[in-house]
């Protein structure tokens, strides 16, 4: 029987071959992109706005983001950390954003407050106000990795160069936000350890701590990241802080408070000589003040099982007068409220009410901050947080509760 099969024209066979090559190339690219960026893609896809901005009330947008994978923190630790914001940007750009975008960090003049307390049911609490100006924030969820804890933390996106007026717009801004785990301001991990960072305004014109020994290096927010990821207790948080040279970010100075579910807490401060002459950031040394060993600070502190902090160094004789202590009025008010019940509050909402009393819209500002960007009460016993945006205490759309469970 005669073969009647007709061959396709040459041009059709060539076109088919070209299309096949294109498909193969696309598949290879997709596989390569997924292999290289699957965690980053998952993180970007998880990011969403949960509260819109309100310019009249100085509210920035609020976002949440679930970080997939390890965000290169192990590599960050292995290389010895970083000693400056510029080095941090270079690390993030080369590892997380793969060199796709250039980043920058902003400078802030923040005035904050924190305290520890215990609920009537015995839960350990850590409260925190972040006072600044209108800005966009992101609540960051980090999953547990081998040898590292899961955590909830809050980041000010202005630290990453996100326009405070525009917020997160488009894929490039979302890629920028992949760096949010490296700039936490406060948080809690699944071991029940919580930590916050606060400006301390040290030196004649606010001089950054800039230690220079043979230890590896950390900047202000990356040290907090280390505590959230690796600390099982206050003691381990202190060990982490002692293991690094601190290089304060944004050309300013900071101190920290850390607490755990046992009720233990500590204030971590890097100090040299008295305030006015404390102008050599490389000469400062870490001083740790525990809640159960703070009789040297004052009678009130010695008698209290809880701790509280604002924006001045608590070490005795650091200042010539009380008028030089930034936030001392808020410090006294927090103590006044906590001392009424010896640091025991009914629940998270009662703790939140203390933060409300020293918020920017309630308090007579002693600095240039226009609002309290967020108020958070972390429950260290059940690893959860009650989080409120910008003093909107009566607005249900601004009140959020999250849990690591």
Please describe what this structure looks like.
It is a single chain. The chain is of the alpha+beta class. The protein has a single domain, classed as Penicillin V Acylase, Chain A, CATH 3.60.60. The protein is built from 9 helices and 18 strands. The protein has helices at 10-46, 73-78, 85-95, 170-176, 220-230, 234-242, 299-303, 328-339, 348-357; strands spanning 48-51, 62-67, 113-119, 124-132, 137-142, 151-156, 184-189, 194-199, 217-219, 245-247, 254-259, 265-271, 285-290, 308-309, 344-345, 371-379, 384-389, 399-403. It has a 9-stranded mixed sheet. Strands 3, 4, 14, 15, 16, 17 and 18 form a 7-stranded mixed sheet that branches.
List keywords for this structure.
7-stranded mixed beta sheet, 405 residues, 18 strands, 9 helices, elongated, Penicillin V Acylase, Chain A, alpha+beta
Please sum up the structure shown:
With 405 residues, this protein is α+β, with helices and mostly antiparallel strands. Helix content is 27%, strand content 24%. It contains nine helices and 18 strands.
Q: Based on the coordinates given, report the CATH architecture.
A: 4-Layer Sandwich
| Strand line-up of the largest beta sheet | 1-2-5-6-7-8-11-12-13
CATH superfamily: Penicillin V Acylase, Chain A
Q: Please provide the ordered H/E string of secondary-structure elements.
A: HEEHHEEEEHEEEHHEEEEHEHEHEEE
Determine Rg (CA atoms, Å).
25 Å
Instruction: Pick out the low-confidence regions.
Output: none
Shape: elongated
Largest β sheet strand count, sense and barrel closure: 9 strands, mixed
Strand content: 15-25%
* CATH class identity: Alpha Beta
In CATH, the topology is named: Penicillin V Acylase, Chain A
Distance between the termini: 75 Å
| Average residue pLDDT | 91
- Secondary structure tally, helices: 9
Structural class: alpha+beta
Tally of individual domains: 1
Number of strands: 18
Helical residue percent? 25-40%
